[in-house]
């Protein structure tokens, strides 16, 4: 006997087949079981098929992850602690595990795992390979590589190799070559003096990372930033420059 497949929930069942147009519901010939899954399916009066219970549970976890009150904090071992009204659990996002019963017993991707993933994706928490650091210039919290050491800079005060900058003290244009992990009171010049001991650096933080740069006037077609003499500056002494706008 050929069975007519039950259509997905978004389509109506053709009620005219196999029932003499009486308005009843046509089901397949195996006692209401679906051939593909072998699982009972409920058909409502409109002929729609109820969603898979497993799918409903997954959707429910996603919704609870978004709306239920939870407090999530990163731990020092790259895991996260999730505090809820029902208990406190530990999530390891990189391995996809949680200490809650829903995950440990049922093996489900629980609402706690989902909540941590949401907060990391939206930038409210550091990723497993990051930690919370503090910008040495403005003090704002920022995410830094987990194993990073030394002073760090936030996105607003950070620099990349090749950035054009201007020296606050002289007004001269420079090009960044490297942002070091050494503080201004640790970094020594060719003269053996710490950067922070120079009078022109007195107004800048000794705790700031040193940024190495070359003067733009020393560059040319045959003389790139790796060939020019490098100088060190406390990070806040240099100001980003929009070269195109200045020209």
From TrEMBL:
<dbReference type="GO" id="GO:0008270">
    <property type="term" value="F:zinc ion binding"/>
</dbReference>
<feature type="compositionally biased region" description="Basic and acidic residues">
    <location>
        <begin position="31"/>
        <end position="76"/>
    </location>
</feature>
<feature type="compositionally biased region" description="Gly residues">
    <location>
        <begin position="18"/>
        <end position="30"/>
    </location>
</feature>
<dbReference type="InterPro" id="IPR007527">
    <property type="entry name" value="Znf_SWIM"/>
</dbReference>
<keyword id="KW-0479">Metal-binding</keyword>
<feature type="domain" description="SWIM-type">
    <location>
        <begin position="89"/>
        <end position="121"/>
    </location>
</feature>
<protein>
    <submittedName>
        <fullName>SWIM zinc finger</fullName>
    </submittedName>
</protein>
<dbReference type="Pfam" id="PF04434">
    <property type="entry name" value="SWIM"/>
</dbReference>
<keyword id="KW-0863">Zinc-finger</keyword>
<feature type="region of interest" description="Disordered">
    <location>
        <begin position="1"/>
        <end position="76"/>
    </location>
</feature>
<keyword id="KW-0862">Zinc</keyword>
């Amino acid at each position: 006997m050929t069975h007519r497949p039950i259509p997905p929930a978004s389509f109506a069942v053709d009620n005219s087949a196999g029932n003499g147009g009486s308005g009843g519901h046509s089901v397949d010939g195996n006692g209401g079981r679906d051939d593909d899954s072998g699982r009972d399916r409920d058909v409502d009066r409109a002929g729609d098929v109820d969603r898979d219970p497993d799918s409903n549970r997954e959707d429910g976890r996603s919704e609870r992850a978004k709306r239920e009150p939870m407090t999530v904090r990163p731990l020092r071992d790259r895991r996260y602690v999730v505090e809820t009204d029902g208990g406190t659990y530990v999530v390891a996002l990189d391995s996809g595990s949680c200490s809650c019963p829903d995950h440990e017993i049922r093996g489900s991707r629980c609402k706690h795992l989902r909540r941590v993933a949401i907060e990391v994706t939206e930038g409210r928490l550091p990723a497993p390979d990051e930690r919370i650091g503090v910008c040495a210039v403005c003090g704002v919290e920022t995410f830094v590589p987990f194993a990073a050491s030394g002073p760090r800079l936030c996105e607003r005060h950070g620099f990349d190799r090749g950035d054009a900058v201007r020296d606050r003290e002289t007004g001269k244009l420079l090009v960044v070559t490297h942002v070091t992990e050494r503080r201004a009171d640790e970094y020594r010049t060719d003269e053996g003096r710490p950067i922070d001991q120079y009078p022109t650096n007195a107004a800048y933080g000794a705790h700031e990372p040193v940024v190495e740069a070359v003067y733009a006037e020393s560059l040319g077609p045959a003389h790139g930033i790796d060939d020019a003499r490098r100088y060190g500056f406390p990070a806040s002494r240099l100001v980003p420059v929009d070269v195109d706008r200045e020209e």
